[in-house]
Specification:
It holds the Pfam family ABC_tran. It is a peripheral membrane protein. This protein has about 500 residues and is an alpha/beta fold. About 35% of the residues lie in helices and about 25% in strands. Strands 6-9-10-3-11-12 form a six-stranded mixed beta sheet, sandwiched between helices. A six-stranded mixed beta sheet has the order 18-21-22-15-23-24, sandwiched between helices. A four-stranded antiparallel beta sheet has the order 2-1-4-5, with helices on one face. A hairpin with a 2-residue loop joins strand 1 (about 10-15) and strand 2 (about 20-30). Helix 4 (about 115-130) crosses helix 5 (about 145-160) and helix 12 packs across helix 14 (about 370-385).
Amino acid sequence: MTTRSPILSLRGIQKSYGPIRVLHGVDLDIYPGEVVALLGENGAGKSTLSNIVSGTVQPSAGEMTWLGAAYAPANPRAAMDEGVGMIHQELKLLPKLSIAENVFVGRYPMKAGRVDRRAMEERARSSLKRLGLEISPDRLVEGLSTGKQQLIEIAKALTLNARLLILDEPTAALGGEETQLLFQQIERLKADGVGIIYISHRLEEIRQIADRVVVMRDGAKVQEFDSGDVPIRTIVEAMVGRSLERMFPALPTPREEVTLEVRDLTSPTNAFRNISFSVCKGEVFGIAGLMGAGRTELVRAITGADPISGGEILLNGKAVTPRSPIEAIRAGMVLVPEDRKLQGVVLDHSIAENIGYANLGAIARNGWVSSRRLKQFADECIRKFGVKGRGHQDAGELSGGNQQKVVLAKWLARKPQVVVLDEPTRGIDVGARSSIYDLIMDLARQGVAVIVVSSDLEEVLGVSNRIMVMAQGRQTGILDREEANDVSVMELATS
């Protein structure tokens, strides 16, 4: 550990929202030229603490010092002026502006009273090149992939000449090559004396990038490791506050009755073709495959979100082939989509409203929704599914894991016969994953037919009774639990 003075010190930082305290007296020091991994489950307080440091949120109590002087930024601009930059997990780019304009928004270089576009584009081009992104800075952000947008956010931070950077899930949308370019840039920043707070759910990255590890749980700092070389299991146990004897719960035994049968299903775009399988009551049926295999397109078609050109879908032996999501929902089939923020919840509406939208039949009388009845219904769902939030809160205020629970709650309240989960734990921490797995097993025990699509091979192996593997839109095999392993699945996924 360096003996130099910290650039940032936090002492006794607290934050409360009304009666709810989300931070409990956090102490933290950040030194120049080091990467501190800030880890914890969704809702542990990481983002709140980071937002306090970056001036987005004001603390309820405690003190901060920056370069030895009192530090209390009133807003993000004040923090940036001090040399503190934050790259948020949620992208904040303006799609109708160019890349260069996004990089310098709010602080455009000026010349003779006008924006110096040449200087702006050259500086933006230089920052993009440092990250390996060969793209014209005068191009609009609109239409760029999520990964490229993430790199633009990082390039924006690089132009701040910051002394401290907070990176909140910076690699969530990046591929392996892009991630390594980012890590190379982080090493250069460290060599320049920049301190970095690094927040990530990808625990395998921590050993590669972190100098120290700080673990938070329930709004408090619970453990600190003086090295990034810490076994993942040790970190996870500190995050969840218990020993992890087993990540995945025991699978119940499926019943013999077939709930869902898919026969020769084919997409008009050829995303998948001639897919056939069945799912029994109480069975968890996994779907595995590499990117582009057609998994998401298949389950969207099964639940009426995408069209089909051939084949049929049967529910309890009766043909139901839905032509729209509402037909699938009425038949008893629901989809928890891959992108919960765009397709799963309405972020600026309350938890109660999100739950109510899928259950108007249960809470409306004569076409009118009673606020009292909505509150009662939503409060029961929040309690039953363990959502950490209150009905009046906007869904956008919740962590990723709790947003996913809201999506699950609104559909499971309808008591469906078939539940399709597309990437159910993407962007969700280990502790929240465990509760999602418990919900899946509870559904199976109740006799619901569950389909799980996952890019996480360990996950699909851990939760499934059987696994169908897809490759390039084709069904390459269905494996029983006893014969499914990482080798057998990957052989089929690459055949």
